[in-house]
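idk why but the lab printer keeps eating my pages so im just putting this in chat instead. protein + zinc ion:
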Amino acid sequence: MKKKIDWTTTLFLIVSHTIGIVGTGIYVYFNGIHPLEIVNFILFYILTGLSITAGYHRYFSHRSYDCHPFLCLFYAIFGACAWENSILRWCSDHRMHHKHVDTDLDPYNIKKGGWYAHIGWIFHKRENLNLNNVKDLQMDPIIRWQHKYYVPIAILVGSGLPFLIGLLVDRPWGGLLWGGFFRVMFVHHATFFINSLAHMVGAQPYTTQDSSRDSWWLAFLTYGEGYHNFHHKFQADYRNGIRWYHWDPSKWVIALCSKFKLTTRLNRTPSRIIQNARLSNPQPNIGCELVRL
Ligand SMILES: [Zn+2]
Ligand SMILES: [Zn+2]
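predcted complex ->
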């Protein structure tokens, strides 16, 4: 049966990409670039992207550490501004991905192709959606509040704040374009790469039971989520890159927050268990990752 198109999401993606590329291009052509617009872009790229990886992914979906309500609220607000749906919806999809990886029940099943896993799956209406696998999250009033007001939060903070920052230098539309539309596009594709490229290219040092892969260069584009083979094997670990030199800003932020008691109970898989996984991996496709524990 042919799947129906989800027109709301499809139009949102078309409009956000068009304004992000064409709108920003036209604005720059006529008005040039103010340094504050670059700051606006970087600031919101970091705040919203990390709220997805350290917040939506490693905290809400996997509970790989505990979080102070203040940080939880921060993740809820800036995660919404990434326009990747509410915490409940995102985590439900992500838990389905881990539980049913590489099967028809995996929302972004890589077996349906790189394009489908990257963005194609979002265009389709999904049947029988429920939130049964995130009942634990539904107990949290911050998460329930964010689910209810996801769109107003995303508009007010994700677009309103960059607009106000732009207003400081009399360039509000530049602020909105750089910190809003153009930035959203980059954050979107950083997340989408984890669903596509992180299941297509790279090494499989820890498990060959699924399609997940590790690659250091993808970690640079995805706030540290490129070590995806490790993550699929050890989902409860707050780290994705386990070596100190592995580029994993999400891990560093979580560890830094622990110094201020904003995060606690950071879960680390014992290195003995990690080593065992590597040694018992029957077909270790080490690829470019020749690092040994
Ligand atoms: Zn995950
Ligand atoms: Zn995955």
